[in-house]
Specification:
With 368 residues, the protein is mainly β.
Length: 368
């Protein structure tokens, strides 16, 4: 006979419920049974929804295969307190012991060349809060990174709620239109116009309030698959403005394009705006907007990086990557270049503007 569990170590229970139609299940639990959303993951194409109601949590899990016996997850400060024995209920339900605050899982890096174009990869899928997501890095670099072009087609109030993300890095850049947002301990809500950017440090509470019709942002984050966790205890605004507060070792950044100076870029004939992310993350990541100032090409170079993502905001260019045929790119296209691959840009139009996001923040080109 199995010994009784030390019940004072159990923090809660999640009932896992498999389903094939996640949207219908979410609506039923929310509207008919009165549950509230706690977590949705991943944001761009949800497969998991955790909900709370009547003193219980349920995890709605989308599946494409025949259902297996159910699972109960016991949330514990230390799952190993019960040993490693497998727990199975008489009806076959498996009992899983999970940590109450699991660490962020960062998958091993699998770098690859990725070129995403509006002509070849322009499909938007419905994600969290009615927002539409276009996946700019479909292979996710082994699950380590995600980059999304997010669209709010209708505009007006956004059906969002106060939430936060467990991430290593996450930034939002406004590509088209405007959006009103609010962040924990960063004062009142504020408007972000095209060209503005925020660094969302780990676990900062925030909410999207409203947007212009056709508003688009570029979101880049690590890891690719991360949780969006609803916050029910904190109300925004908090009434505080703490610009030097750290969240997970990072500072909040609000970059306003109209107030940022232009500097000489690493290649002649181009200038850039530093979005402030390098300083706020202590060099972990960096982002910059680059524009043509008479230059028409970036020389063939290799840049040592963990992740190097570039999105063409405006204009046109020809992208040349070692081992590939030269390719014309236009506004809305993007590319990822691994650390050991040489690339260049030519025929850069005079109106060209690019968003470059890198890990680490500082890049030293090796011309080849």
């Amino acid at each position: 006979m199995t010994a009784a569990l030390p019940t004072d170590a159990i923090r809660g229970i999640i009932a896992v419920i498999p389903c094939t139609d996640l949207s219908a299940m979410l609506a039923y639990f929310r509207e008919t049974l009165g549950f509230r959303i706690e977590l949705i993951s991943p944001a761009d194409s949800p497969t998991t929804v955790v909900m709370w109601g009547h003193g219980a949590q349920v995890r709605l899990q989308k599946v494409d295969v025949a259902f297996e016996p159910g699972v109960l997850q016991l949330i514990c400060d230390d799952p190993h307190v019960f040993g490693d024995a497998e727990l199975v209920a008489p009806n076959g339900t498996r009992i899983e012991l999970v940590p109450s605050n699991p660490p962020i899982a960062i998958p091993p890096l699998q770098q690859s060349i990725v070129v995403s174009t509006l002509r070849g990869n322009a499909q938007f899928g419905v994600g969290r809060a009615g927002m539409q997501y276009r996946d700019l890095v479909p292979d996710r670099q082994g699950g380590r990174f995600i980059a999304s072009n997010i669209l709010i087609a209708e505009g007006g109030p956004v059906p969002d709620y106060v939430h936060f993300h467990k991430v290593r890095f996450q930034m939002i850049y406004v590509y088209r239109g405007w959006v009103r947002v609010i962040y924990e301990d960063q004062g009142e809500s504020f408007l972000m116009q095209a060209g503005d950017c925020v660094l969302q440090p780990p676990t900062i509470r925030h909410r999207v309030l409203e947007a212009s019709p056709g508003m688009q942002v570029i979101e880049v984050g690590c890891p690719a698959d991360h949780d969006t966790i609803a916050e029910h205890s904190i109300t925004l605004p908090t009434g505080r403005e703490l610009p030097n507060r750290e969240y997970g070792g990072q500072l909040f950044v609000r970059h306003q394009a109209q107030l940022s100076p232009w500097q000489a870029f690493r290649y002649d004939g181009f200038t850039f705006q530093d979005l402030g992310i390098g300083a706020a993350t202590d060099g972990l990541a960096g982002a910059r907007v680059i524009r043509a100032e008479g230059g028409t090409q970036w020389p063939r170079s290799i840049l040592d990086n963990e992740f190097l993502f570039t999105f063409l905001l405006d204009g046109t260019a020809v992208l040349e990557i070692d081992g590939r045929e030269a390719q014309s790119i236009e506004a809305g296209d993007s590319f990822v270049i691994p650390t050991d691959v040489a690339y260049s840009l030519s025929e850069v139009s005079s109106d060209a503007k690019l968003l470059e996001v890198s890990l680490p923040a500082d890049l030293t080109p090796q011309r080849v």
